[in-house]
Amino acid sequence: MKTQLTFALGLAVAALGASAPAQANPEAAMEKAGCPACHAKDKKMVGPSFKEIAAKYKGQDVVPTLMQKVRTGGKGSFGPIPMAPNPPEKINDADLKSAVEFILKS
């Protein structure tokens, strides 16, 4: 009986672990979403560098705002070249949040 209980408890713990979301890897998520096609860590390309973005928003609570900007796209914040929208099919909300937080720490 004790062995069966231990086995059942082990299965339950394994199931919980399997259903928990994996720790987001912001760099991998940005790579998969295609962000490096227009952005680099420390140099301006088509869009601003991550360091430029971090400097502009330093000390501000802008994660939700920047997530919305990435979702809807737009232009004018860093010049006339527009950024295309990035829907959840391209980068999910958890990965997007992780990516924005990573960029703001650059």
UniProtKB/TrEMBL annotation:
Residues 73-92 are annotated as: Disordered. One of its GO terms (molecular function) is electron transfer activity. InterPro entries: Cyt_c-like_dom, Cyt_c-like_dom_sf, Cyt_c_ID. Residues 12-106 form the Cytochrome c domain. Binds 1 heme c group covalently per subunit. Coiled coil: none annotated. Residues 1-24 form the signal peptide. It holds the Pfam family Cytochrom_C. Keywords: Electron transport, Heme, Iron, Metal-binding, Signal, Transport. Heme c binds at residues 35, 39, 83. This is Cytochrome C. It comes from Piscinibacter aquaticus. The lineage of its organism: Bacteria, Pseudomonadati, Pseudomonadota, Betaproteobacteria, Burkholderiales.
